[in-house]
Amino acid sequence: MEILNIRTGKRLEMIPVTRRLQELATSLGCADGILVVHCPHTTACLTINENADPDVVTDMLAALSSLVPHSGPYRHAEGNSDAHIKTTLVGPSLSLIVSGGKLQLGTWQGVYFCEFDGPRSRRLWAQWVGTTA
Q1: Residue of 127, 122, 124 whose CA lies nearest to 36
Q2: DSSP string, 9-46
Q3: Distance separating alpha carbons of residues 103 and 97, to the nearest angstrom
Q4: Those residues with Cβ within 8 angstroms of residue 49's Cβ, 6 or more apart along the chain or in another chain
Q5: CA end-to-end span of the chain, whole Å?
Q6: Rounded CA separation 129/108 (Å)
Q7: Cβ proximity of 122 and 41 under 8 Å
Q8: Structural domain boundaries of the chain?
Q9: In which band, very low, low, confident or very high, does the pLDDT at 6 lie, cut at 50, 70 and 90?
Q10: pLDDT tens digit string along 44-58?
């Protein structure tokens, strides 16, 4: 298992990690298979979405904040219930297809680390399943 460290700077943000994951796949000699990436935090997660227009990230964070506002009739004492809910809606893990050593993503797609309770020091766990070059 490999560990990627991520430092977030805001309470809510989406950090592109596609390049780091591709660099990891290259350094591991990944050829054909699956790179499984997991976020071991209950208030942060992973997603794949458009990586061409930064307004998409802005819109996604705004929509999630509208759907699940920071303050609400929550009972969790730490004051971050919204972050737990947002993380559950988006999801903690991705399975990324790798072919010929390259992450297989659509033309406009990128992988994002989603922070909902920052700023914090975070980690991603990655595990290669497949053949090596």
Answers
A1: 127
A2: -SSSEEEE-HHHHHHHHHHTTEEEEEEEEE---TTEEE
A3: 6
A4: 56, 57, 60, 109, 110, 112
A5: 18
A6: 25
A7: yes
A8: 2-132
A9: very high
A10: 999 999 999 999 999
User: The tokens 């990627």 sit on which residue?
Assistant: 4
Closest to 113 (Cα-Cα) out of 97, 94, 89, 95: 94
CA 126, 129, 130 angle in degrees (round to 5)?
135
CA atoms of 101 and 82, how far apart (whole Å): 38
| Predicted TM-score (pTM) of this structure | 0.96
Give how far Cα 101 sits from Cα of 18, 25, 95, 97, Å.
14, 7, 15, 10
Read out DSSP for 56-85? HHHHHHHHHHHHS-SSSS---TTS-HHHHH
Instruction: State whether residue 99 is helix, strand or coil.
Output: strand
What CATH class has 2-132?
mainly beta
